[in-house]
Known about the structure:
By secondary structure, the chain is of the alpha/beta class. The protein is built from 37 helices and 28 strands. Strands 18-15-19-20-22-21 form a 6-stranded parallel sheet, with helices on both faces. Magnesium ion binds at residues 349-351, 380, 382-383, 388.
Amino acid sequence: MIEKLLVPDIGDxxxxxxxxxxxxxxxxxxxxxxxxxxxxxxxxxxxxxxFSGKIESIKVKVGDKISKGDLIxxxxxxxxxxxxxxxxxxxxxxxxxxxxxxxxxNQEQKTQIKRNEKTTIQxxxxxxxxxxxxxxxxxxxxxxxxxxxxxxAHYLIxxxxxxxxxxxxxxxxxxxxxxxxxxxxxxxxKSNGDQxxxxxxxxxxxxxxxxMVVRANKxxxxxxxxxxxxxxxxxxxxxxxxHFWRAKNNKFGGDLVYFQGHSAPGMYARAFLEGRLNEKxxxxxxxxxxxxxxxxxxxxxxxxxxxxxxxxxxxLGPMLAIYQARYMxxxxxxxxxxxxxxxxxxxxxxxxxxxxxxxxAIGLAARENLDNLIFVVNCNLQRLDGPVRGNGKxxxxxxxxxxxxxxxxxxxxxxxxxxxxxxxxxxxHLVKTMNETVDGEYQAMKARDGxxxxxxxxGKYPETKELVSSLSDKDIWRLNRGGHDPHKVFAAYDKxxxxxxxxxxxxxxxxxxxxxxxxxxxxxxTHQTKKLDIDDLMYYRDRFDVPLTDKQVKNIEYYKPDQNSxxxxxxxxxxxxxxxxxxxxxxxxxxxxxxxxDIFDNMKVSTGSKExxxxxxxxxxxxxxxxxxxxxxxxxxxxxxxxxxxxxEGFFQKIGIYAHEGQKxxxxxxAQLSSYREEKSGQVLEEGINEAxxxxxxxxxxxxxxxxxxxMIPIYLFYSMFGFQRIGDFAWAGADSQxxxxxxxxxxxxxxxxxxxxxxxxxxxxxxxSTIPNCVSYDPTFHYELAVIFREGLRRMHEKKExxxxxxxxxxxxxxxxxxxxxxxxxxxxxxxxxxxKEFNKNKKTKIQFLGSGTILREMIAGAEILQNExxxxxxxxxxxSFNELRRDGLEVERFNLLNPDKEPKKSYVEKCLGKxxxxxxxxxxxMRMNSDQIRPYINKSFYSLGTDGFGRSDTRKNLRKxxxxxxxxxxxxxxxxxxxxxxxxxxxxKDAIKKYKIDTNKPMPTKL
Length: 1009
Ligand SMILES: Cc1ncc(C[n+]2csc(CCOP(=O)(O)OP(=O)(O)O)c2C)c(N)n1
Ligand SMILES: [Mg+2]
């Protein structure tokens, strides 16, 4: 049966141009195969077939204008159902089934667990109006727990609270639980590790980490470093290293661990025992200029085989880890990697949690059920200057925030020595005291001694005083904090690793500078302590029983037991069992096969009179790339809620928006071609209004080649003003991580984005991009420039695996695009940063060189034409695709020449282009003058620049360009003025132009307006 394929609902557009026919008459196609591409003035979209079958006749041709309901083609319907194109990958199906059954099992188990014993903690009756009534309620609750289990009790309490709200009792219920461990002592999973050996190993790691910092600072006091942080976190790391974190190897993808930046000494000290680093390397801590030195903090750029994640700029680690975990699920759900139950662990400081970024994305982690994510917050109660929350309790505060966001919270506050005391706390006064004591007091207590704790803490109530009456001060001093107790930490990690359906945060209480004694334990200056005198070192040795003689301590010697010692054997065995060492950075990713040339070639022809923006050209190019079977699955388009701004809404239907739960609703625009389609295997990361999150996704995808051994091509499109300026520190971390991918600063340029005003108009992002050494940036004007640049980016990064990333600006100004110039060296010039695009040569008299970038190049071409026709001035026009790249080349050449004074000087690329040209040079871009001024030192001629220095403001493009003096009239006028100054023409021409174009010479500099 012959069916008619009509133009579907394409939204608000009519008379949209057909730009491509993707099928031929007689061809067999499947349902959903694209048949034509149409393009409005903003975006291009493919129209898919709604039938399968053989095409009988095509009723449209390229250039036709079509609207909803028009006939596209006739097709013999083969009646095949073709839902096959949208099947969920097999792995994903299995994953869902597994997760669902596990969830069910988990729930069932929970209902089965019945509390046999009554809680040991009783409610203190103070402030209770009717203790009898309270008791009745409590007994009822106990009976429910006894009979029907925890779930039922929880349900009833929830219902009671709901009812209270409905009755108007609008009292907020607290988000936090009592100040005790989340896991009761009797439910702790026990470690099978040998605690004695583990303690000895931990002590050696502690010692070597401290020794490394002290030795470096003894040699060069300026080097710095931290002892106190790792001292507080050693157990938290050690338990993970010995029992939980699985390394990447040929059988398993590996867990990913984000180490707290300034705990790095501890990681080096462990690697030393593992035999991965030697003494010489430890002695090169913070001395990285010569090869082999150890980075101050985790920096993959500087230690590319060791560190995986840069974390020391506080707040970035937590966000990067969240998006890493999300990206891992994305890869699984798209069927690109297997689900192996890998985890992402992130270690964070309690002070670090003050950073807005640290907590900024926790909602996403819960919303997306990231049960592959575990945060460990080391609550040593201190940051750099003093207490994190002297007047409050950071652990309780964090618990409330994370619980509120939907995380599984595990508090590890008290060590095992507290267990009997808590069990004996029949009156509840111990927990009451724990709840009432603020962090400032907790910190002060650990800076003193057992007698002080007895008086200040246990002395608060007669009941608590009594509780410790049989303990000596030494016993009281030994009462340990949860984060220093390997049993408690093990139980917490075990539970965290098994949690299903939500992310987990382990909030562990520790002591900053643990074991450092008077020199730095729990004192406000702990963070800064990097030198320990002999007495302190002796104390530290004794505190952790490090087998060093006094003489060895005086020499601050490292301690490494013999290869065959139980300790070294144990540490290696444990890591062997867990698949290898951590951290370690490597890659087994295969390069992506380059797409065929013709994908780009159709951008090298003229668009004729058809106008389009470079943003649109880019989207067209991506649409074409999505047809290449090698590249298509690897593209990761990332957009922070601006798809429609960039004309990318066609991607919603074509490749879907990633949504871990699929789409649970029929979208409002479901009848339309570009309707909003969310899908479990969706490809677009639609991040919402969240530039930091989008950038974190970009970094996760850009480092996929090492973290997941699969090369991916992230393309993050953003409003250029909300790029580097907004997320500069993330971009720096992305560079350090050796991310590969594209950043696209769309709607770029101070005068090109017209109406949006001061906060939106970017005139400096290229300068910000230039500060990142491995960022390659371009400001192309025409579609063929974009094609050449993008193709080279794919080649360098994803085929040749070069560790650079690309920043390309695209604009929203529509104009026709010429064909690529015939000159063979043009492509090379585009990539190097400049090439001659046009020459006005009619008059053969006076000449000027014009260098233009981005949209302002077009103003220059127009200005040059006026100069030739009205003033008989000739010119050569150079399209500068990257002042940044030109400067880099200039810098290198200049340095070479200075270092090789006896050799024939090399020529910079700028000099090669302009050295033999005639006339002065006038450069301009839609960016600050500093952008084009970058090449000034490499030119031996008079050089002038125009640019958009100053605050942007909303107006038409024409008015803005006039205001910033980069329109064609100003280019003509300034051109004449430059020639007059060079005494090549009389100054009256410039004066006449000023008059003719009504240029106000008294107007202040735009920077002052
Ligand atoms: C963005 C940023 N700001 C400031 C610093 C400097 N800094 C390094 S450590 C530190 C204190 C950290 O305290 P906390 O997070 O509690 O870690 P702890 O050492 O106590 O484990 C500060 C302010 C930094 N590294 N990054
Ligand atoms: Mg801290």
